[in-house]
Structures are given as structure tokens and as C-alpha cells.
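Illustration 12: Protein N-terminal glutamine amidohydrolase.
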Amino acid sequence: MTTSELQLQPNNLDASLFNHTPFYCEENVYFLCKKLCSSEIADAQGSDLFVVFISNDNKQALLQVKSSKSFAFLKNDGESIFYTLVTSELPIPLWHQKASHRADGVILWDYHVICVQRKKDGGTHLVWDLDSSLPFPCPLATYVSETIRPSFQLFSEFQ
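Figure caption equivalent — predicted structure in C-alpha cell form:
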């Protein structure tokens, strides 16, 4: 698919068009963000993209939680990438993950990294998760309800 075709079809893209190495979600998201920017699916500077770390407390040394008004950024080769960290105490269950061997797609991760695209025009915010079996990209509300499942009753050690 050419860059112009990517520009015309930002919904339900084939995730295989993007570089993906299993179990390297942070690197995958880094390259995903670069391609979204270069394909003009995202802002050229990535100002509408947010890299979200979903993690447990033991892995939170990566970065601290950032508010929507004071973003910290990591400069890598002159590029700014914005980060948010969501934490829990133990490995976190995420559903609809390709690495799962279960029918429901649930897997326990120590951490997982996704890209969230905030639509400036008031459109639906999108989640770009190369490890998900949900539509790619997926509306944020759908991703949260289907992948994170905040209403799902967990055993106390996973809450």
C-alpha cells in the first residue's frame, strides 16, 4: 500500500502494514508513530499521538504519570514523543491480544504499550495497538471496554 493509500484509509487498516516484533511493544509503537506521522495519518510532528504505558507498579520506573497539560517528552534523534503511564500492582490482564492462547484473547502482561490518537476535529479518539485483535485502529471507548474491561471483576490481587 502506498503512502497516499494510507492517507485515504485511516480506519481499519491492515496492521501487517506496520513493523511488528512480538513482545517488543514499546519499539513497535515508536515505529508505528513514525509511520503514522510520515503517512500523514497523524500530525507530522506527532502532536496528536500519545504513547501510553499500561503497567504494574514494579515496572513504573520507565516514566511518571503525565497530565494532559504538562507533557514530558523523550527526545530521540530530535523527535518528541509524549508518554503517559497507567499502573496497577501486579501483572495486568488485557483481552483481545494476539499473543494469547485462549479463545477470549486474555493475557497477563507486566506492561503493555499502545498509541492513542487524539482527534482535534472532535472525532473519535483512536487506539493503535499492533498486538490487539480488535479493529485497527480501534475507537478508544471500545478499546477500554473490550481490552481493559474496567467493569470486569478481578481477584483482589489483580485489582
